[in-house]
Specification:
With 804 residues, this protein is mainly alpha-helical. It contains 39 helices and 6 strands. Helix 31 runs parallel beside helix 33, helix 35 runs antiparallel to helix 36 and helix 37 packs antiparallel against helix 38.
Length: 804
Amino acid sequence: MTGFKRLIHEIHRRSLWQVLAIYLAGSWMAFEAVGEIGEAAGLPDWVPSFALILLVIGLPIVLATAFVQEGVGASRRAVAGRATAGDAASPDPGATPTADAVAADAAAPRSPEGRAGLFTWRNAVLGGMGGFTLLGIATAVSMVLGVAAGDARPEVDRNAVVVLPFRATGQDIEFLSEGMLDLLAAQLTGEGGPRALDSRTVLAGLRARRADGGVGLPRDEALALARQLGAGNLLMGEVVGVGQRLTITATLVDASEESEVRAQVDGPQDSLPALVDALARELLAEWAGFDPARVAALSSTTMPAVRAWLDGMRAYRGGEFLAASEAFARSLEADTAFALAGLMLYWARGWEGQGPEYELGLRVAWQGREFLPPPDRALVEALVGPEWPELRLPVEQLQSARDIVERWPRYPEAWYYLGDRYYHWGGELGVADARDEAARMFERALDLEPAFAPAMNHLLQLAAESGDRTRTRELADVYFAERVDADRSALGLEWIAAIALGDTAWLAALEARFDDFRPVEAFQIAFHVLRTGTGLNEADRAVAGLEESVIRAIDPFGLYEYYVARARPAEGRERLLGSVPPAFRGGADMFYATVGTVAPARGDAAAEALEAFVASVPPEQAPEFTLLLRCLAALWWASSGQAERAEATSEELEAAFAALETEAGPDESAPELCLLSLDVLLLRESGTTAALERTAERLDSLALNGSLPDGFTTLANFVLMLEFETLGDYERAGRAAERMHAGPAFAGTVLAHARFAARRGDVDTARRYYTHFLSLRDRPEPGFQTELTAQASAELAALLEPSG
């Protein structure tokens, strides 16, 4: 047998194939582990290559060891066999071997014991461990020296992108290979999406890796280059030229997760800048994860408008509503007809106290609604009627919102919008458990988009309001951890969460930041504590700590409600209403006098002042406004026992409103609400039962529409609450009070809820509302409604007494 055949025979005879298979499998696992560790720990690029060399060197060593060790085993078995045979033939171990035995021993193969001393499994294992130990030492030294020399791998910027040269196929378009780097870098500025690294830096890194400049660079090597340059994204693609047309395909890859988005455009070569612009627009929108319909809607606007819009969307979805408003405003500056930017400006400004941009955004969205994706167009049409600026009634908005989620159930904004209608209008529309319904809608929006901050914001408020500390903590941890800019945090919402959780350290830190609070946050704090009756002392400090200009910036009457509910109206008037025109101050006084939360004398004085003011206004100036002021005065007269004066004014108002409708066609809701409320009060005084029932039913139906403005809707429900209470229908009286809960007169409705619950026999609910009412009056102004407060205390004490 030749030497080669003998070797093959030996390999087949021995277990080398098994050893080879085991070694190769183990080497592959070790190499993969080195690669994963190297990527996670940022090890030098040569580490995997060095590990591969060690594994290749180890292969012949392991095979030789297996070969030798197999031979040693066979030799030892042969020697042991001869020894056993010799023992049987010659039991005397000291006997001299015979000539035949010596000859047989010489003919036997010699033992490889000498070679086995070197090629042992122990030595092979120690050698492998030694090699990888040296690799570890060399890696550590290299990294230390690299850091010392300033050559450490840069941290990965999640917003940076490496743009590789595109593969160019076609006649006379080779220049586009590297040319795409500069063309796309001009579009990928970091505004609204990734920021392209400098093309010279990218090309230098490519030359260090490949002589061909990186065209056709394997994906793994390209991703490694992106990480080496500190970029979290990679952009590569291809340009194909056929005749005078170009097709450009691009893939944007997340270098860590290796998720990707693709885009493709085609068109004539002489439209190259427009093609690149469209490609970048589509890539940015896909990268941001927007619905394809919205991506398509971006094609009708300019790249600067798209970039600003994407910046705004990122801020909006992260809860940075002020930053979002600024970005959407920039987008509209770049394209004044960009409907999608207008719609989002409307939503974002709604979180910041509205203002002129609020109406501007909705108007742009309405005027350009045909360019909006279908769900967004439906949202605009749910808000605005067929004629600008006519808004739909809240009851119509709610029904439209329900229709929208049925048509687009995978659209987070649709669920949020429906939840928002329940949140703001559900109570006034008579929806049972409206805030629970709102919470379910917001949870549905978060199921579809877990980081959707608008839904999370309202859901956090609802959890805090309900006293659910566990859910409040969960949402607060996520919401405030995900904020884009900590200096623009929603401080009012933080305050609400801190109050609900009883976190005194958090509250103390927030108190030190009063100068950072914005007007909308003052309202958040005030209305949360009015709804819950908790955190009142902290809220007093918060409201007192805000600058006067901040408080007056939006709606001083809204915050005045806080002082009225806290039984300190004089303090609120002095602080908030000093610069308000007399007509508006008088209107507020009569409103609160009518619902019983300020002194009757204040209502009488306000009514007289309003009459004088109305008489001084020329009839052609703001006729509906002056008529509504007179109607408000008539409501006060009717509720305070001055029925004759109220009735005379009512007749004048009906004729004036009818003439005004014939001439100009005004909004009927406010006049009708006021006149019907006035009729109910007058019919109650006269005792005309049948007419009173018909009028009350008509008023109840109109009030359920959530007609604007808020003040007259609240007054209408107050009048209905009085009527239903007189009739002994405490269920309907309670529903009327609940419809007032989203607007002014918190203290009055809280006390009404307590009274109605007690008369229905619902003692637990009655106790809760009485306690809430009395907590609002813990530090009243001297003499303010002391009899009412004493009566509420006595009624609560009676409920707390054990039953006999």
